[in-house]
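User: Run a structure prediction on this.
Assistant: Running it now.
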Amino acid sequence: MSQSTPGSRARASRHPVQRAAAAVGAVFLVVAVLGFIPGATTNYDQLTYAGHQSGALLLGLFAVSILHNLVHAVFGVAGLVLARIPAGARGFLLYGGLVYVVLWVYGLLIDFDSAANFVPVNTADNWLHLGLAIVMIVLGALLGRAPATRTA
């Protein structure tokens, strides 16, 4: 007969929306760290604190800066913290998804070479932001309604 510890039972009985929010938060933390690693970030020598003049590209595709990486880190930590309870997890996914809708629209409206592009973003970021928005909102909406399952 195996004994379960309180922590393992809590993990096993986590609501699906909590697991989804924790996974999304963990991905954001990984992306934040990768943004500071030469090789994972091309043109690393061009990484600036903020602004469109940062020439650094995460995975050779997505515009990043120190500020952009720090925002990913904060977003990741928020996801992990809010994943502790179902309502927090659902809120993180839904409202975080809405933040990404706003970022997508923002990226469509600004001139990439202007001071308004302080994060910075590029076309690849824009479409990634739309994809993240859709995935997060769908996860929050669908999983947030699912009943919690208990495993013994």
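The radius of gyration is 18 Å.
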